[in-house]
User: Fold these one by one.
Assistant:
Number 1:
Amino acid sequence: MRRFVSGVLSSYQKRSLSHRSLRFFSSTTSLSNSDSPSSSSSAAMPTPVTLETINPKVLECEYAVRGEIVTLAQRLQQELQEKPGSLPFDEILYCNIGNPQSLGQQPITFFREVIALCDHPPILDKSETQGLFSADAIERAWQILDQIPGRATGAYSHSQGIKGLRDTIAAGIEARDGFPSNPNDIFLTDGASPAVHMMMQLLIRTEKDGILCPIPQYPLYSASIVLHGGTLVPYYLDEATGWGLEISELQKQLEDAKSKGITVRALVVINPGNPTGQVLSEDNQRDIVEFCKKEGLVLLADEVYQENVYVPDKKFHSFKKISRSMGYGEEDISVVSFQSVSKGYYGECGKRGGYMEVTGFGADVREQIYKVASVNLCSNITGQILASLVMSPPKVGDESYESYFMEKDGILSSLARRAKTLEDALNSLEGVTCNKAEGAMYLFPRIHLPEKAIKAAEAAKTAPDAFYARRLLNATGIVVVPGSGFGQVPGTWHFRCTILPQEDKIPAVVSRLTEFHKGFMEEFRD
Amino acid sequence: MRRFVSGVLSSYQKRSLSHRSLRFFSSTTSLSNSDSPSSSSSAAMPTPVTLETINPKVLECEYAVRGEIVTLAQRLQQELQEKPGSLPFDEILYCNIGNPQSLGQQPITFFREVIALCDHPPILDKSETQGLFSADAIERAWQILDQIPGRATGAYSHSQGIKGLRDTIAAGIEARDGFPSNPNDIFLTDGASPAVHMMMQLLIRTEKDGILCPIPQYPLYSASIVLHGGTLVPYYLDEATGWGLEISELQKQLEDAKSKGITVRALVVINPGNPTGQVLSEDNQRDIVEFCKKEGLVLLADEVYQENVYVPDKKFHSFKKISRSMGYGEEDISVVSFQSVSKGYYGECGKRGGYMEVTGFGADVREQIYKVASVNLCSNITGQILASLVMSPPKVGDESYESYFMEKDGILSSLARRAKTLEDALNSLEGVTCNKAEGAMYLFPRIHLPEKAIKAAEAAKTAPDAFYARRLLNATGIVVVPGSGFGQVPGTWHFRCTILPQEDKIPAVVSRLTEFHKGFMEEFRD
């Protein structure tokens, strides 16, 4: 009588315990269940969870941005704290990750004023508050509170995010693109990463489902595809043309995957590029949209660096804008745009705010995305508020506008200078070539390593670029990520280095890096 | 030459594009790839993502707490806004979800002061701030900022969370349990839900891996198990003994699952119970620990309601404390404790803070959990700070202690009164029996529905308890979740109702509910 549960639960319950068990039953001969720890009952039993018994997808996934070089860096940092002066440098410079505020970038004052006020609304109508906060921050906090049911910033929101904030974001997208945006297409998330996971979870059924990803790529994509059991179908960016994205390469890799029985479901494009820093041209974007349309692929557009463009001849265009400008609407193409509060000039990584704009899916599929979002209830409200602020910053005439503009412009123009200085410095090194950082927060130089260095890496059982990065860290305290963490053409070696150290530290970075590289080449020159 | 990438990426890349494709190749005859939308190339192609082509696990998962009754409630709320007076009630009362602040519960002032100050540190040393914030909130904000490298609350933290905050949490656990806690065992997360997903992801390899879950259960568990492709192995709580958890039932269901070839990997226990509200006795907890130890199961202890105990004869004990008090250490048993800032007296659902304390796993497995955490970089810093605050609230002698204590006690004693009033009201209804709400935030009454109502539900193609819940909503504006969303013994019907409406609304809830129920029984009495 108690064997089956009723109602909603029972439908899968019955499946798992009757239909499923039937399936198991017919195949139990090959199951090693009988010698698994859980069926023994000895008293002194080892913990049943070992590397051999965990989900192999977890074991398989890699995330080099916080990989072993970073673990080494953390160890060295502790050493520095415990024994100052014991290493040839006095601080660790984390150039491994796009984490601006960890390297001293200050948050935008207006944004922080608003979220502080929303976190503690009782001070909003106190007189002292006028002296501490700008008038438009106070006004904006009231506006936002009025958009939240019951002004309850401590309540779970709608699983897509607070409706009023989504209205603001949609208006911001519309102002940016010149095409309408629907607040019901917006899903607010704890940064862009969970949004990417949600789309992978939706699209990947089995390892026969493929996702076209750039190589080099940001390893969130490879990790997410592995964790969801799909297949990464690589397409190579062309280093020789400034990390160009060629349609012929997409086509070739798509055909190749198809011939192997893989159903390619989506194309990931990161624009501006991570780790490669290129900004796609409008023409190129149109070709990409056309390709996705022709092949029926979902276009997963990672647009988190949309504010980070440093060259006057390039401009960011969202893929949704491009597709709308080509006359393609909801019925024609599925485009998902990812945005985050962690990047841009705001760099609010710790706040974990972001959204995805999901267009070109049927109402029934969107409902499924909503359902998955609802299992996690909602994203954090502070992050939601911040996402609305970055899409709707102070405007000309607002009290905070001038200081906001100065802060923003100060950060972006400094980033542009830092990118150029580091790029020039890298290009001046023997055997190093580095493409222009048109956008994003990274340089991805190629290092032509001497044969002797490659042999030494082999002997040390590590990839040559990881060998280089480890030596660089040990000698200078500078943390970079080996190119092998992002993927690269075999036989080529790179590293990713952020442009984020504060400007007054750049000369030291350049001289330390230059000195190290010279010594390295001296030591290993063939 | 460009076919394979090198380094870390290549290891799985090669697998996916050579080894994997080989596997595909030998089985392509049965693949329907050739007629999938992506391989056609017609110009006017429909969007390729349909219910038929998305991940079936997404389709299969259910989450009733935000299911169709809630969708109906949102529609009615809009109707009320647009045409006030058009419905037989003037507000929707969301008793479907443990979301205290959405129903008017106020946040704890001290907590909000500290997070506001951490959001906008420049005001910390302004004189006006002394007039707006309590002295110990200012001091605590400084302490926390000093624990954050570079005082950067906008930077990604360590992927397990800021070390200083984990120290505070570990100290709080130690003070609660009387046994040591290691800060390196703490993983800070965006609420408890992502922590549960992480453990399911780690433990579930295939559908042959089972997780023992209580029935009734909180549907996060069923949803997460479905999404990760495992099998939910149910064990039934005994309604007749106040939702007792019997070891004989665990043993029976475990054996049953084993006999079907399922490897049971973990036992989920929710204490205090959700949706059932019982608080386990210490003896019972010891038996559960012994059972997990004997069977080599990971004990997944959902302890998010640890502060919500309303009866003097029961007390919360963490499962880690129980196992340590039995003499079991790291080597003997794997226990994961989930905690959240969303529940307790704080109810900070929108802040998405929480942690899991992971004990009894080898260093190598813990490294894998860290790796998965690192793919998402870190949880939101505000939530991290709040998690440290709830585990280390003001102490006797602190300036805020009295107001903190009054707020906390006010909320908890009111919840206890509300629980009792609602429990009594439910038990006074014809054909309704309701167990004691010893803890958590819910009542889970059983409704003995007349045959005629069950027939009417059948005719309306809905489960009888969903039929009842829908009628209740339409008549009174009260939103509850049908028992079928949590699982129940077949042929029995329940609903889950929170105890969270503010105390001045409870009389109206009781009278509306009573009146509705009488009318319903009149209408359907056999």
Number 2:
Amino acid sequence: MLHLLRTHIEKIIPLNDDEFEFIASCFTYKKYKKHQFLVQEGEAVPYNYFVLKGLLKLVYTDETGKEHIIGFAMEDWWETDFPAYYQQTLATMSLECLEDTDVLCLQLEDYKKLCARLPKLEHFFLEKAYMGFITAQQRTISMMTTGIKERYDQLLKKYPSLVQRVPKSLLAAYLGVSRETLSRLPL
Amino acid sequence: MLHLLRTHIEKIIPLNDDEFEFIASCFTYKKYKKHQFLVQEGEAVPYNYFVLKGLLKLVYTDETGKEHIIGFAMEDWWETDFPAYYQQTLATMSLECLEDTDVLCLQLEDYKKLCARLPKLEHFFLEKAYMGFITAQQRTISMMTTGIKERYDQLLKKYPSLVQRVPKSLLAAYLGVSRETLSRLPL
């Protein structure tokens, strides 16, 4: 499965075999079952996860116990409670499997070791961070300016396979509406 | 004024005089008056801006002509229509001076030249990108889960001097409420 990570990184920077061997040595392979948690609110966040196979939801639970979906992640995506991982604080979100999921796990210490030894990896992570920032900012704009129907259509256009795989109740929680409101839309 | 940029970068990575001289050679200094535009919707976005002095608003205007404030920027902040700058597309937002503003301007080509010659700058920009991503994601969470009063209080706590300097009508547009709603809150 490691070749998936190599293909993913090589879309942005070239790697030789020695470099990739070093990179691979910094990751741990783990398998999770549907409904298992990779990150739990209130606990430490040891890893950033690269998804090899499966589907995850990143959830923020508010004071009333209501779940808000901050994001989904599937094959070829990175996901974690990023502020908690990067700043080594406790998780304020949870990351849970919506399907059986295989991931490669990267500790922050190993991330730093990787970047110190292979500085070109910072270029790779910088591209990923810019895309994450752009996506998060566009979501803010979309939430401020766009109706639910248009936001659903944008999601469908950008990630058609995600919309197929995610239960409608979770899409509703991602869009910030009730399941009933979503089902009344002419989708 | 260039020393402000050096101090800013050296909070994250050390620089020697030669390195900073090269960095400085990649920036252009510009002065703008209150109400002038640095970025205009529909036009090219040649620069990313580092604010030396002053205050900017980043605005998205929807189809009905309503202005939504995506962000503010003041001393020591970077701002531009980032997707348009980085992907070299036309601006979908505008960036306008709320006060007379002095900036250092960085073209994308010069940004790439900088990172190629001084790879440690990618570490600097990576830190900035992570913080931008975290801030944008936290804003999404805040918009999904938090009332206007709490969002105003968060803003005041995080950026007290910003809240002092920005007109209340623009704070309302940032928070996504009318000026009247904001003025009825027990602030």
